[in-house]
Every structure is written in structure tokens, then in C-alpha cells.
């Protein structure tokens, strides 16, 4: 927890900012910081800011950023706790992952994370087909639909909820028994948030099972596990947010119904203190030259062009630092099920007049589309549906990329593993192939279908805990026919 100081003689109001690591590293953080600074000016008194996060690698830097250079404290443990049970397994596809999930940890509450909304919907539908009581949760579900799913899961026992990062923060879904990750998160911070959902009951242990559906996901998960317990990403606010300075100057002009040209510094000077004065003046000059704002005797005001470009929906574009893609609201009667991308309405081969959508892990046939109101009317369908959403690429930290490379070489040259001179072993590790692609490897290490093969060696040794940082060992599991990496930390 990061806590800023207050003036000792002035009672303070508090602004609490949860999951600080999630927005401090991009435009959202600068926008929120500017709004908090404007609130302090309107209130006429300091506002104490409390930033909450359990997965920050540089809390002192974020404290200086959040407090705008004022006094503050870092409260609590500066680093994330280590420990827990983690297992990494390779499966062929999402269908294979659904089969595994339907057979393991029965009778327990399982939270399954996926890296996309489409994958959440597909896996939810597959689990329901397999007879597993399943709920789904992601940002494109209707609010009522998400609430029903989360409440039903929280009160249930033998069930699964499949979710994106929407359930990564501390949303209450009851006591969890297991966390399962399909493929791999893009950061150690996300992994720590997710594994932290377990182990909260007395006598329980934090745990996570990785099910990688591709070679690249397997390698990324191995990299995350190697860094787990000793490292977490640094959160660094983007330097020189000039576009957000322009954004906030226009917002202040509307708020004050006209703003003296240099008065923005009294409102936002502490937030944007890192921007050189010449660059800040260039931003205001550009707004004037572009005809977005006007200078009338030293008072800045909005021009007609600025009203046209930012005035839609009561200047909603100035209320947030980001835009959302076009989504269509899907309704069954008067109930909103969720939102989908317009590309979801493209009909596939063999479909009838209307496309079949997959939303809330159920199939819906499109019966009408109102493009003006952005509404899609649907009815239940027995066909297999699909839905699409547009998403951005996720970058990986340099340290994670290096850990992935080290994991690859460790699995290839671990002395306790089969000889690296064995052609089958070299071929398997080099391509991260499933073990069933290497018949010589199966025969040597005792797969059941290899007649006369030696018995499988005792697996307790590679699974034992080490007194140092997390370690990974590739283990061939005879009954599961896959390469599995067992990882543990002290």
C-alpha cells in the first residue's frame, strides 16, 4: 500500500486507488492523477491518496509519482510473497484442456483464467457440454449476467468459472480451491494476482495449474514460473504525457468556462512538472493553431471545431483517456446478454439466414440487427456459435523473454534428464513437441504402449523442494503422454 501525506492542520479526504499496478504504467494513470489533483483544488484542501497493489516491483518510484513529490509512506511488505504449488502441463488444444478440466479436481471450486474473451466463451461451452457446472465472466458480458455468474459461483461448490483478467483483482467469488491458467499470462504480476486468489483458507496452499495449448505458450509459462518468487515487473509511468496535458487543458476550459492562458499550471503544475515549459507551451500553441481552442484577451475558450470533435455525448471524450471499439449490444427480449464485435455477425459456411453467436457460453441465433441503435436481437439456438472481439497485442518484459530462453536451455541440458545426445530428446526439447511425437523417447522412458520398456522411475526426486529460487524440471508423465514441468520454491 502506498500512502501520501497530508497537511497536519487540515482534515483530509481520501482517494483510494486499487490495483495501482494495472493503470500506473499507461495513460490511465496520468489521467487519474490529473483528476485527483483537480479534485484537491476544487475541495480546497489536500486529498490523501492511497494506492493499493500487491504486485509492484518499485513501490518507492510509484510513491513519488502518486504523491507528486510530496511526503508519503510505503506500507506493508514491499515484495510479493513466495511459495505455493505450481504445475505446468502441455495439452494439444483447448478441447484437450476442457477434457482435463472435466476430470481433475472434481468436487472443488476452480477458477480458470484465459487470455481472451473468445477463448473464455469456447472453453465455457466445452465444459458445459462435458457436464461440468460452468460459469463465465469477462468485460463484454452484461452487468446483470456477470453478477449472476459470480454470485452463483460464490455460493456453489463443485463448479468452474472461466474468466479473463476481470477476476484477477480481489472480486469476491468465495473461497477457491484451485486456479488453472490456460496458456500463460503476459507478466509475473498477473500470475501473482491470479495465484493469490487461492490459499486464503486456513490450512490451504496457494496453487496454480498451467495448461499450455501451444509450444510458445508452454515456453512463456515456463519463463513466468522461473521468475516467480524473486522478481516482479517494474511499473513505470510513460514519460512526457503531452497528449494528456492537451486533454486536461481542454477539460479545464470547459470546467471553468474559460481559463487564463497560464492558469493550468495552478491546477496541474505538480502532475506535469516533468514536462519542460517549452514543450508545454508548444501543446497550447498547437491547440490554438489547430482551431480547437481560441485565445480571447488571454482567456482560453473552445472553438467550434473543438466542440465538434470533442462535444459528442456531453464531451464524453474529455472524461476518459481512452476510447473503446464499436460493440453491438446483444439482447434476448429485454435482457442484455453482453456485447460483441460487428465481425461476429459474419455468417460461416452452413449457417442459415442469421449468424449464431456464442455469449455467456450459450449459443444464440441472430434474428434482427438495428445498426442505428447498435442492438442485436437473438433467440436461443442449438447450433455451435462463435463470437469475436478486437484486442491489442501484449508486450513481454525483457526479463521474461530472458527467462523463457533460460527455461528452454535448462530443459534441454538438465543433467538429470535423458541424455541430450539422444536424438529423440533433442528433437523433443528443441521444438517443445508433445512426447507422443517421439516414439523412441516413449520406449526408453516406459510409456505403457512400449512393450518391454523399463518401469517409470521414481518421480519424487525431481519434485522435491529446493532451498533456493524456483527451479523447473521436465518430466515425462507416462499416463498423460505429455511433457510436464514441475516447479516449486521454498
Q: What's this entry about, in short?
A:
By secondary structure, the chain is α/β, with parallel strands linked by helices. It is built from 17 helices and 20 strands.
Descriptive report:
Helix 4 packs across helix 5 (117-129). Strand 16 (356-359) and strand 17 form a beta hairpin. Helices cover 34% and strands 21% of the residues. The chain has helices at residues 20-23, 27-43, 59-66, 94-103, 117-129, 143-155, 188-195, 215-227, 242-256, 264-268, 277-289, 304-310, 312-315, 398-413, 423-431, 439-444, 460-463, and strands spanning 2-4, 13-17, 47-51, 72-74, 85-90, 109-113, 134-137, 159-163, 178-182, 207-212, 259-260, 293-296, 299-302, 328-332, 335-340, 356-359, 362-370, 375-380, 471-477, 482-488. Strands 7-8-6-9-10-5-20-19 form an eight-stranded mixed sheet, sandwiched between helices. Strands 15-14-18-17-16 form a five-stranded mixed sheet. A four-stranded mixed sheet has the order 2-3-1-4, covered by helices on one side. Among the domains are: 2-77 and 237-318, Orthogonal Bundle (Arc Repressor Mutant, subunit A), CATH 1.10.10.10; 328-380, no CATH class.
Helix fraction bin: 25-40%
- Strand percentage lies at 15-25%
CATH superfamily of the domain at 2-77 and 237-318: Winged helix-like DNA-binding domain superfamily/Winged helix DNA-binding domain
Return the CATH architecture of the domain at 2-77 and 237-318.
Answer: Orthogonal Bundle
Radius of gyration computed on alpha carbons:
27 Å
Amino acid at each position: 500500500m502506498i500512502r501520501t501525506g497530508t497537511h497536519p492542520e487540515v482534515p483530509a479526504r481520501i482517494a483510494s486507488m486499487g490495483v495501482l499496478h494495472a493503470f500506473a504504467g499507461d495513460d490511465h494513470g496520468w489521467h487519474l492523477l490529473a483528476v485527483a489533483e483537480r479534485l484537491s483544488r476544487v475541495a480546497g484542501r489536500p486529498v490523501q491518496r492511497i494506492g493499493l497493489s500487491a504486485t509492484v516491483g518499485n513501490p518507492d518510484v510509484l510513491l513519488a509519482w502518486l504523491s507528486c513529490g510530496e511526503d508519503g509512506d510505503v506500507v506493508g511488505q514491499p515484495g510479493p510473497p513466495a511459495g505455493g504449488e505450481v504445475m505446468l502441463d502441455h495439452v494439444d488444444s483447448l478441447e484437450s484442456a476442457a477434457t482435463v478440466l472435466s476430470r481433475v479436481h472434481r468436487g472443488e471450486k476452480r477458477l480458470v483464467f484465459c487470455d481472451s474473451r473468445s477463448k473464455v466463451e469456447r472453453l465455457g461451452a466445452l465444459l458445459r457440454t462435458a457436464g461440468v457446472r460452468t460459469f463465465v465472466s469477462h468485460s463484454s458480458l452484461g452487468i446483470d449476467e456477470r453478477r449472476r455468474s459470480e454470485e452463483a459461483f460464490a455460493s456453489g461448490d463443485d463448479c468452474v468459472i472461466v474468466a479473463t483478467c476481470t477476476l484477477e483483482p480481489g472480486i469476491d467469488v468465495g473461497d477457491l480451491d484451485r486456479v488453472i491458467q490456460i496458456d500463460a499470462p503476459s507478466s509475473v504480476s498477473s500470475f501473482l494476482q491470479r495465484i493469490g486468489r487461492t490459499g486464503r483458507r486456513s490450512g490451504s496452499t496457494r496453487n496454480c495449474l498451467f495448461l499450455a495449448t501451444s509450444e510458445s505458450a508452454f515456453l512463456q509459462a515456463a519463463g513466468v514460473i522461473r521468475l516467480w518468487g524473486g522478481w516482479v515487473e517494474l511499473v513505470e509511468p510513460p514519460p512526457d504525457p503531452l497528449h494528456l496535458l492537451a486533454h486536461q487543458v481542454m477539460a479545464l476550459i470547459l470546467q471553468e468556462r474559460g481559463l487564463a492562458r497560464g492558469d493550468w499550471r495552478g491546477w496541474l503544475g505538480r502532475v506535469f512538472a516533468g514536462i519542460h515549459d517549452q514543450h508545454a507551451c508548444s501543446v497550447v500553441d498547437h491547440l490554438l493553431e489547430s482551431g480547437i481552442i481560441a485565445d480571447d484577451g488571454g482567456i482560453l475558450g473552445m472553438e467550434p471545431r473543438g466542440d465538434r470533435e470533442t462535444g459528442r455525448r456531453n464531451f464524453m471524450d474529455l472524461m476518459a483517456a481512452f476510447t473503446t471499439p464499436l460493440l453491438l449490444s446483444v439482447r434476448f427480449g429485454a435482457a442484455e446478454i453482453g456485447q460483441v464485435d460487428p465481425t461476429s455477425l459474419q455468417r460461416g459456411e452452413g449457417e442459415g439466414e442469421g449468424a449464431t453467436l456464442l455469449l455467456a457460453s450459450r449459443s444464440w441465433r441472430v434474428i434482427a440487427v438495428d445498426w442505428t441503435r447498435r442492438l442485436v436481437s437473438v433467440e436461443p439456438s442449438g447450433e455451435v456459435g462463435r463470437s469475436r472481439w478486437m484486442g491489442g497485442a501484449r508486450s513481454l518484459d525483457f526479463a521474461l523473454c530472458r527467462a523463457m530462453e533460460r527455461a528452454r536451455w535448462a530443459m534441454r541440458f538438465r543433467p538429470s534428464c535423458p541424455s541430450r545426445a539422444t536424438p529423440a530428446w533433442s528433437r523433443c526439447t528443441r521444438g517443445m513437441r508433445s512426447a507422443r511425437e517421439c516414439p523412441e523417447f516413449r520406449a526408453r522412458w516406459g510409456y505403457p504402449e512400449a512393450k518391454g520398456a523399463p518401469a517409470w522411475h521414481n518421480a519424487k526426486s525431481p519434485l522435491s523442494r529446493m532451498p533456493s529460487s524456483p527451479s523447473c524440471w521436465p518430466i515425462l508423465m507416462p499416463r498423460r503422454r505429455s511433457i510436464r514441468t514441475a516447479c516449486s520454491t521454498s
